[in-house]
User: Which sequence fits this backbone?
């Protein structure tokens, strides 16, 4: 009881000092000009004692994200990051952040010691407007965020220009030096709108970021132009309808991003602080983006968790709350990290990791006990109100809320962007009239799991384009027929043909070898010793799931383009062989 009384007295004293100094809600933001981070630091002896009073020796740390299966990527999104003090905020969250294939947060302040206070947030006497704040954090935080595992940061928010273009440019330089990608703000409008594009687990992800004009008293000095640094704004009417300019920009940006990426994410800084439900404008902006091609929309700014909606089969997380954010308001300490599992350019599962920020200090850690129950209840209830079913899972110290994709995986009809780059043909360096075709094919790992492998085959140059089409079709087929070895050009003569060149020597034949397929050796049909126990020399495809069969995807892809199959020969069948007549 005495400890609680002492803490309460200290808090009252602190509030009184801040109010008298004109730093609290009425007279301006926490940091003033010349203070690179939170104004509360000026009372370090007091706030330090208060912070220590909240330290807990039993604070848990997040476990790494579940190991992804082959072809699956783990994307991690968190809300607002405000690392105002020159220290590490992320000790208990590093394992989770670093384990993601792509970890993204919203940096809610410049990382700089330079710049001047933004005039947009000042009155005519140079005082910070009521309910506005000016934030600035030490440049050293760029490397700390990188060391914690962040790969990318969105900068489109209502604080990124608190100290003007000079501070923003220093922020960009610090992030570049630390190896952290960024979007949503830049040295000019084109740079600010440029998406982050990254390849993860064979899938290409694009990230765009915007801030709602409603989060500020205006956009002067914050909006990027053709010549000036700044951020990217979206706007809406009082009724929550996106403006025509906003609609056009989002559609253009998403169309361009969709040409470069398999999975497109849009991040918005939007909504009303402290609210439980999304405003009309965020809901319409999110749906506009998904209709225009976005695969995922994530939001922040309300400083509280809001629900997750599935629209047209794609997720919208309206607000992820705070993640590393010093604040005296306890309601802002209940948060979450959103893990998104994607495969084949589609989301398969959302994993919500409940987060509890340390009171006032803002350090994130796994929520426990009553805090965990409150966050799970909040996420589940608010999401269900948006029509999204949630499942709670607990394993040891790992607790999370799962939202599965209710739609079955869509059959792939096109290559992923990263896969497209691995299908190409080049003239052979030594064989005139021949080209080397590079492509992807499925193969079997030791445990029988199918994995994508790079393969090459040499064929006649005139046939190279259709050979690429053939192997694209085989690769995209749901059968995923495993190909271990491909043989094209091979200088050989036809058996018993009086020295006549075979189609292999002409670059017009391809053998597809699997250990389980029958082969020809010295003119004799044999069965590979690693096959199932067939009668020697007898083909029994019913006993072998990886035989090339008349009705399989391999034969269909070749025959569709006029190739012959050795399995159709009337004698001495060669089930691995395909050739193109002519020439």
Assistant:
């Amino acid at each position: 009881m005495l400890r609680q009384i002492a803490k309460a007295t200290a808090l009252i004293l602190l509030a009184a000092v801040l109010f008298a100094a004109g730093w609290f809600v009425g007279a301006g933001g926490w940091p003033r000009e010349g203070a690179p981070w939170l104004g509360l630091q000026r009372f370090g002896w007091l706030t330090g004692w208060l912070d220590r009073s909240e330290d807990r020796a039993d604070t848990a740390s997040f476990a790494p994200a579940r190991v992804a299966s082959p072809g699956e990527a783990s994307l991690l999104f968190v809300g607002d990051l405000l690392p105002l003090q020159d220290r590490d905020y992320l000790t208990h969250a590093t394992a989770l952040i670093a384990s993601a294939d792509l970890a993204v947060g919203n940096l809610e302040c410049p990382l700089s010691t330079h710049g001047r206070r933004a005039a947009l947030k000042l009155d005519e006497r140079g005082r910070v407007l009521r309910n506005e704040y000016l934030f600035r954090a030490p440049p050293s935080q760029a490397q700390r965020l990188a060391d914690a595992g962040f790969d990318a940061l969105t900068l489109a928010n209502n604080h990124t220009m608190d100290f003007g273009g000079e501070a923003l440019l220093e922020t960009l330089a610090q992030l570049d030096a630390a190896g952290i990608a960024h979007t949503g703000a830049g040295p000019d409008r084109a740079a600010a709108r440029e998406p982050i594009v990254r390849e993860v687990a064979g899938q290409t992800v694009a990230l765009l970021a915007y801030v709602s004009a409603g989060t500020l008293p205006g956009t002067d000095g914050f909006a990027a132009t053709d010549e000036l640094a700044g951020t990217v704004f979206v706007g809406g009417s009082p009724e929550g309808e996106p403006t025509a300019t906003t609609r056009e920009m989002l559609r253009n940006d998403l169309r361009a991003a969709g040409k470069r990426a398999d999975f497109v994410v849009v991040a918005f800084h939007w909504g009303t602080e402290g609210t439980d439900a999304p405003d009309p404008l965020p809901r319409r902006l999110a749906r506009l983006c998904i209709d225009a091609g976005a695969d995922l929309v994530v939001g922040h700014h309300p400083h509280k968790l809001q629900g997750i909606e599935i629209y047209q089969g794609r997720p919208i997380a309206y607000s992820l709350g705070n993640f590393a954010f010093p604040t005296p308001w306890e309601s802002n300490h209940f948060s979450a990290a959103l893990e998104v599992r994607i495969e084949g350019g589609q989301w398969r599962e959302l994993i919500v990791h409940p987060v509890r920020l340390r009171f006032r200090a803002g350090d994130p850690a796994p929520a426990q006990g009553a805090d965990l129950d409150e966050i799970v209840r909040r996420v589940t209830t608010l999401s269900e109100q948006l029509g999204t079913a949630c499942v709670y899972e607990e394993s040891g110290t790992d607790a999370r809320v799962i939202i599965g994709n209710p739609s079955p995986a869509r059959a792939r009809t096109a290559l992923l962007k990263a896969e497209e780059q691995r299908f190409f043909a080049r003239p052979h360096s030594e064989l005139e009239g021949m080209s080397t075709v590079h492509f992807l094919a499925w193969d079997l790992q030791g445990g029988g799991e199918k994995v994508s492998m790079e393969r090459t085959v040499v064929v006649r140059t005139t046939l190279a384009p259709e050979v690429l089409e053939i192997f694209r079709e085989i690769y995209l087929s749901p059968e995923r027929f495993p190909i271990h070895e491909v043989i094209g050009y091979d200088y050989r003569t036809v058996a018993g043909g009086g020295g006549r060149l075979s189609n292999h020597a002409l670059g017009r034949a391809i053998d597809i070898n699997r250990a389980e397929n029958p082969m020809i050796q010295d003119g004799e049909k044999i069965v590979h010793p690693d096959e199932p126990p067939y009668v020697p020399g007898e083909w029994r495809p019913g006993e072998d799931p990886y035989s090339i069969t008349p009705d399989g995807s391999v034969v269909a892809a070749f025959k569709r383009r006029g190739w012959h199959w050795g399995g159709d020969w009337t004698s001495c069948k060669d089930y691995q062989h395909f050739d193109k007549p002519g020439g």
Remarks:
- Residues 15-57 have pLDDT under 50 and may be disordered.
- DSSP finds twelve helices and 28 strands in the chain.
